[in-house]
Amino acid sequence: MRIAKILLSIPLVLNICALAQRISGQTPASSKRIVMAASTVLDGKGRVLHNTRIVIEGSKIVAIDSKAGPVDYDLRGLSVLPGWIDAHVHVTWSFGKDGKNAGPGVTTQEAAYESASNAWATLMAGFTTVQSVGSPLDVPLRDAIGKGLLPGPRILTAVAPLTGRGPQTGTPDEIRAFVRKQKEAGADLIKIFAAQSIRQGGAMTLSQDQLNAACDEAKKQGLRTIVHAYKDAVRAATLAGCTQIEHGTMATDDDLKLMAAKGTYLDPQAGLVIENYLLNKEKYLGTPGYTAEGFAAMAKILPLNHDLVQRASKIPGLKIVFGTDAVAGAHGRNAEEFIDRVRDGGVDPMAAMVSANLLGAEALAMANQIGSIASGLQADIIALDGDPLKDITAVRRVVFVMKGGVVYKNVPRADLHH
Ligand SMILES: [Zn+2]
Prior knowledge:
The protein has 418 residues and is of the alpha/beta class. It has helices at residues 2-9, 16-24, 109-124, 138-146, 172-184, 208-220, 231-239, 253-262, 272-279, 281-284, 292-312, 336-345, 349-355, 358-363, and strands at 33-42, 48-57, 60-64, 73-74, 79-82, 84-89, 127-132, 154-157, 162-163, 189-193, 224-229, 244-247, 265-267, 381-384, 398-403, 406-410. The strands form 3 sheets. Strands 1, 2, 3, 4, 5, 14, 15 and 16 form an 8-stranded mixed β-sheet that branches.
């Protein structure tokens, strides 16, 4: 009990109740009944509930009942919503000891702690589920968080990505074998690079046959596919039956309409990823993939991305999810992308919220577990100090985070200033 004593003597921002739950949260959430009072609930599906109470038992929401009590957490005056889902992060990417971008493959102890820190920062920012796409190092972090050994969002990982290199990528059969290999390594989904970096022009790097093989084999293995694609690669990946397109810069309206018709998800980035590169330019410049020419190109790409989000949000039936492509420097700032989408992409604030809730959950094939505030779903619940529908910058003020029934953040109300 010495640890408990020490912890209790530290003036933490968490209240005692939250702290006790954090400790017990090392094992599956206790089955104690928790009642949360809320004056405004965005349910994740586009509806707003007023003056109600959310009842939680163990890791799940068991009722939405305005008469439930006694109240354990009074979140009235805040905006309560389901924990956000970021469909595209690189949780292991950090800056190294020299301050420079260390990329995805560093296996030092420092890099491991940085990864754990990235996961913590992401959770504190209100993201309770993330899809990390493209590093085998995601696997031990995913598993440690899943066992309750470390605090962090639920992580889904692609393990190693299929990187298009033209014919060198392999025959369709070799590509199918690669997909099966990732599944054996524990992949939750398959990440495919079907185009160059947009900084290098964004040309296609996989043929239609190669893409068809990758997405078809993944489907046979019960895995989703998310495809890094620009320009022509957007249409090719859509025709190949892949699940989701990442980036999508310079897709035409016809490409976007085809995606809507085929039910392909789009995950565009309205700002954060490029803003983060520009903000941390000195830390990226000269590291693999980041040249002075590439940085010059980024300034031109940003308006193209705004244009894509503006056009995409007007295509009827197109399912747009929320993904930031968070790399070193962006972990914990994921919500900035909401602001970019609303301010620069013309996205309706409610649509921006739903993109990271119900739609995000549907894209992960997890809508029966996360993405909404409803009975039977995981108790992934966050609260914002402010109303994101009136002022989207409220997404920066996450004051309460519960994941799977465990409270990880609960800023005392006296600290909230309106
Ligand atoms: Zn990425």
